[in-house]
Amino acid sequence: MYPLRRLVVTSVAPMTILSIFLFILIILGSFYALFSLACIFGFFKNPGPDTGRPVPDAELPAVSILKPIKGIDPYAAENLSGFCVQDYPCFEVLFGFRDPDDPALPLAMAVAAAAPGDARVVVNYGGSGTNRKVLNLQALADESLYPMLALSDSDMVADKDYLRRLVTEFRGGGKTGIVTSLYKISSPESVGSALESLSIALDFIPSVLVARRLEGVTFGLGASILVSKEALRDIGGFGALTEYLADDYQLGFRLWKKGYKNIISRHVIENRVGPMSVASHLTHQVRWARTYRASRPGGFLGYGITHIFAFALLLLCVRPTVGSAVTAACVLALRYVLALVLYRKVINTRKWLRWLFLIPLKDMLGFLVWLWSFAGSKVRWRGTCYRVTRGGKMAQTYHRSPAHLQLREAARGPRE
Questions:
Q1: Where do the H-state alpha helices sit in 2-75?
Q2: 304 and 168 in one domain?
Q3: What is the pTM of this model?
Q4: Domain-located, residue 40
Q5: Is residue 237 a contact partner of residue 251, using CB atoms and an 8 Å limit?
Q6: pLDDT single digits (tens) 286-316
Q7: Which of 21, 225, 270, 328 is 20 to 30 A from 61 in CA distance terms?
Q8: How is the beta sheet containing 384-388 ordered, strand by strand?
């Protein structure tokens, strides 16, 4: 009988240890979730630096808006046009391309021609480096006329007061490095874009605001960045960032190391992705996760505790008891509380609420993406595959551009 008793004890013990470990992760992740709620309330309660006083037009510096473009995004004409009609006294808009055959080039030229102010197109395929977006930005900065640069991705949407609000916050921040913006997808058009929207709202925004509270703003967010040419020169210009995939992170981090103060704007910019597929959503999430892991490995490992719903489901599978079921229900309720808070503070679009039923699926996919990010270093970005190396640098593995495909078809000869 004694050997049988020892066999039972040794077979049960590992499951008990796993249950305890999962429960500890759930407790830690729940504390993180509650702390992130406090950070969200605190951030949006505070109006930010110098936002309560209107700034006379004569005191506002001239700004060059730089829009690096590759390919046609959904609603591209509308997105680009919004940056050309800013309620701001003096600004210019530069649309930048690396490829003279880019399909979005005629569209950008039409937008620039119809713009009421100074808008023009720059095509420049020079420069050396792996990050083509940064090379594009470098060419645009060289062509720009004004001392302030506003950078934003091509799929972002600008309200008329976008530029004025960012510049006002920049002026009130002291020795400001950048003013950078959170972003949101308020009106998803597909399951994929809804998953992307929920990931941004429930994972990305809380993590950014928690990092801001704990260590300050040591990073930039590529959705929107306002920076002075003087500060940019102080870190070596865009040329210092051409080998990094997370150029926005590197821009903010290098300015922070130089003693500049980075600011997260209270103005949350809209991201319009159209009817994104689930596969595109997962590709984007894997790229973000592997870039984050390469740039900040310790922080990314700690980010794992945020997957509390996945841990709660695993606990329920390992230990299928009433207590485990109650734990999973409480965790899911906490996730929905976070979603409703972000709806009130950030989203403000009722149609977004219809997608909340996807939260459990999004959380499980997010956990799997986090695990999968440790299995390799390859990412796909705008049709090109890269390998992300330690420190966040990037190396191209292969590229299938339209020209490349045409050459390959020509080499094969006519089909019978």
A1: 2-45
A2: no
A3: 0.88
A4: yes
A5: no
A6: 999 999 998 888 888 989 999 999 999 999 9
A7: 270
A8: 378-381, 384-388, 394-399
